[in-house]
């Protein structure tokens, strides 16, 4: 019998586990609708149907949800499906007893109160029930009031126990959250007693300063404070004020302990901390009396912010590339120097230093090498200065210097000479030797001006005077330079007006084939019919136009003028001539250069084969890929390309393979060296050899003597231009020359 009963209990337990799983998954049935869902749910267990029915009748109006069971197995099934606040349990059940049900509840940790209702008068049954955790034991028969009172008390105790558990759980969560927030705070949180000793510090102290909590508890706050900040720290760590009057954002430096334990050495470093502190008070015996018992504080690490502020402050007054003072700091120091000079009745000098040929180096080797060059220049210039002098970089390749307390002008001249000498030696840029120079303008206080802007402007004017005189030198400001500066402004205005009033004209220098004596082409050269200065050559105004952004409109005008003249020449009949035009680097760099050329030739009906564009070597290397794209478009269109002044630039010969070049022009500087017919001129011979090897045409420029003609012809160059044959001619003169040549040939 016992074995059968045990098997029955195990089967019921298995059924309970399945029911509990369904309940957890939300598959359990809803409770009977005897009462509102939030009212207590009771499970009534008795094997006597009449007694079970009377119990339901007794309790149905009490606001409870009622579920009934007549056997132990049915009881366990209900416990698996639903949660019950109270179980009224009869000990004698047909399958297994109430004690087994209670053992099952205890083993499974089911949260419910149990009131045992039994007709058993033996003391053992009651003791067994109470030992198993029964809230009470009622013997049958019981009164209605006794039952209701016991049920109400059991449910009340259950509510109190649940409330206590919730409060304890919340307190535990709150304490864990508080501890987590305090220890996870990015700030140091601490409390001090009235003697200034630590009573609490969070874990952030160890992370930031390297001191553990145990090391600091009981220690005086001065163990952490930098010696120089001890006095200010007293006002923070001994704070007795509260509310709005308490300390806010006081910055201190704290000592931090670094290094590894294996080294057994410690390095003290400093950390800047922003403190917020307030006093803590406890009520004394008298309600109105407060007793100070310590300080609560929060210390925030602002080390990175202070470093960033220092860096920002430094960068606001210094040039990032060269680490020199920038314009803002220079003007500040110049202003102080002027005040000092005015007070002491002394002179000072302001120097404006502009590097010569820096743009060429920057375009040729790239901006990275250009930056490297500027850094090396800054280092050399700084080495030339006296103590108390200030060197600054205004931007680009422009530097300024203030030289206070001059004895005489010669002091400034000595510094300028040192600058030029320092720049005379080559600069090494990753294996490339680069030579540059500087143009230096000098203004003296108070002779040349008494304000900062006046001194800088006049030093700048003196510098441009050096530029105009050939660069690589220095000059003091003179009042006459101001007139020259105004002349440059006037020149710019006149040049713009020349475009509008048709004062520009194209001249052409014929290119002769010495073997046939025929004109095979011409180079277009711009001239300016100045209303006051007469006919000006390109060298008199094009460099100025290049510097002042006028080359684009001038080049546009030149392209149209060449095409108009070609239309007239072609109308005169005869063999078509090839016309060469010089292209400015700025013009080629424009993305619409090819479109302009294409559109203009189509507009005038000019064959592209009659146009040859002349570029310098430096065009090819300032932006190689862009130049290749532009020139390839021209060649595909039918326009040929010539390299002008070959051998005077800085390009690699390998560019001749990459670029679509048809003609090489020997620069007149090399032709000029040919003074003897039986002499040896290797540069000229090398250029001719390169052209032959690459299958390129050759044109010699600046041919002026018969010796030069003979030497070039014997060496293999047969197309020449220069004053030996013809000077540059106006369009009408050139047309007359063509007619004359054709008449002779006829």
Structural topology:
Elements: H1 2-24, E1 41-45, H2 49-59, E2 65-69, H3 72-81, E3 86-90, H4 98-108, E4 113-118, H5 123-131, E5 136-139, H6 144-184, E6 188-192, E7 198-201, H7 204-209, H8 213-216, H9 230-237, E8 250-257, E9 268-283, E10 290-301, H10 303-317, H11 327-344, E11 347-356, H12 358-365, H13 367-383, E12 390-395, E13 398-406, H14 409-424, E14 427-429, E15 432-434, E16 437-445, H15 452-468, E17 473-476, H16 479-500, E18 504-513, E19 518-530, E20 534-536, H17 538-547, H18 551-571, E21 578-582, H19 585-589, H20 593-604, E22 611-616, H21 617-622, H22 624-637, E23 640-646, H23 655-658, E24 663-666, H24 668-672, H25 682-694, E25 697-700, H26 706-715, E26 719-720, E27 729-730, H27 731-745
Parallel strand pairs: 1-2, 1-3, 3-4, 4-5, 16-17, 19-21, 21-22, 22-23, 23-24, 24-25
Antiparallel strand pairs: 6-7, 6-10, 8-9, 9-10, 11-13, 11-16, 12-13, 14-15, 18-19, 18-26, 18-27, 19-20
Helix pairs in contact: 1-3, 12-13, 15-16, 18-20, 20-22
């Amino acid at each position: 019998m016992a074995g059968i009963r045990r098997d029955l209990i195990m089967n019921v337990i298995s059924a309970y586990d399945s029911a509990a799983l369904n309940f957890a998954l939300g598959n359990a049935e809803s409770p009977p609708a005897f009462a509102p869902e939030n009212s207590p749910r009771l499970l009534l267990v008795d094997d006597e149907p009449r007694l079970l029915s009377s119990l339901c009748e007794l309790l149905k109006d009490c606001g409870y949800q009622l579920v009934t069971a007549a056997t132990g197995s049915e009881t366990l099934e209900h416990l698996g499906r639903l949660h019950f606040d109270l179980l009224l349990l009869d000990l004698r059940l047909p399958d297994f007893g109430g004690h087994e049900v209670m053992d099952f509840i205890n083993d499974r940790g089911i949260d419910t109160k149990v009131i045992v209702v039994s007709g058993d008068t033996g003391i053992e049954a009651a003791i067994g029930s109470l030992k198993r955790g029964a809230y009470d034991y009622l013997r049958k028969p019981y009164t209605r009031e006794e039952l209701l009172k016991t049920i109400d008390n059991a449910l009340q105790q259950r509510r109190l126990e649940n409330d206590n558990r919730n409060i304890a759980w919340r307190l535990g969560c709150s304490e864990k959250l508080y501890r987590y927030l305090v220890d996870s705070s990015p700030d140091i949180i601490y409390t001090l007693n009235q003697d200034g000793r630590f009573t609490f510090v969070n874990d952030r102290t160890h992370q930031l300063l390297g001191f553990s909590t145990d090391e600091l508890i009981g220690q005086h706050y001065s163990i952490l404070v930098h010696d120089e900040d001890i006095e200010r720290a007293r006002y923070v760590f001994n704070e007795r004020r509260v509310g709005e009057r308490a300390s806010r954002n006081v910055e201190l430096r704290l000592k931090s302990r670094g290094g590894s334990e294996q080294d057994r050495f410690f390095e003290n470093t400093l950390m800047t901390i922003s403190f917020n502190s307030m006093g803590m008070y406890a009520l004394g015996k008298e309600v109105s009396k407060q007793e100070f018992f310590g300080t609560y504080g929060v210390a925030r690490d602002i080390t990175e912010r202070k470093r960033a502020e220092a860096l920002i402050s430094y960068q606001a007054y210094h040039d990032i590339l060269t680490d020199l003072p920038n314009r803002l700091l220079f003007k500040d120091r110049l202003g102080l120097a002027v005040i000092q000079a005015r007070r002491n009745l002394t002179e000072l000098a302001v120097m404006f230093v502009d590097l010569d040929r820096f743009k060429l180096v920057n375009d040729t080797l790239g901006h990275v090498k250009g930056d490297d060059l500027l850094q090396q220049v800054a280092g050399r210039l700084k080495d030339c200065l006296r103590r108390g002098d200030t060197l600054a970089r205004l931007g680009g390749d422009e530097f300024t210097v203030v030289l206070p307390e001059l004895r005489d002008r010669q002091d400034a001249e000595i510094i300028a000479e040192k600058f030029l000498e320092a720049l005379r030696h080559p600069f090494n840029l990753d294996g490339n030797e680069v030579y540059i120079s500087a143009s230096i303008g000098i203004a003296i206080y108070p002779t040349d001006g008494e304000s900062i802007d006046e001194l800088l402007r006049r030093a700048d004017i003196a510098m441009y005077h050096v530029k105009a005189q050939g660069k690589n030198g220095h000059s003091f400001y003179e009042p006459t330079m101001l007139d020259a500066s105004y002349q440059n402004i006037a020149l710019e205005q006149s040049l713009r007006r020349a475009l509008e009033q048709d004062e520009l004209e194209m001249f052409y220098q014929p290119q002769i084939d010495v073997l046939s004596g025929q004109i095979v082409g011409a180079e277009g050269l711009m001239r300016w019919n100045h209303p006051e200065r007469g006919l000006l050559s390109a060298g008199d105004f094009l460099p100025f136009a290049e510097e002042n952004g006028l080359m684009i409109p001038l080049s546009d005008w030149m392209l149209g003028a060449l095409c108009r003249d070609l239309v007239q020449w072609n109308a005169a009949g005869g063999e078509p001539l090839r016309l060469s035009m010089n292209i400015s680097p700025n013009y080629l760099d424009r993305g619409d250069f090819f479109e302009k050329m294409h559109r203009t030739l189509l507009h005038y009906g000019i064959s592209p084969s009659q146009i040859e564009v002349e570029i310098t070597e430096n065009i090819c290397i300032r932006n190689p890929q862009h130049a290749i794209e532009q020139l390839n478009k021209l060649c595909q269109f039918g326009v040929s390309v010539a390299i002008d002044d070959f051998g005077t630039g800085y390009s690699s010969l390998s560019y001749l393979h990459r670029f679509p070049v048809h003609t090489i022009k020997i620069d007149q500087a090399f032709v000029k060296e040919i003074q003897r017919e039986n002499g040896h001129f290797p540069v000229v011979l090398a250029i001719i050899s390169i052209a032959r090897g690459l299958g390129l045409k050759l044109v010699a420029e600046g041919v002026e003597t018969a010796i030069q003609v003979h030497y070039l012809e014997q060496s293999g160059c047969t197309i020449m231009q220069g004053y030996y044959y013809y000077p540059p001619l106006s369009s009408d003169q050139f047309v007359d020359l063509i007619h004359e040549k054709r008449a002779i040939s006829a």
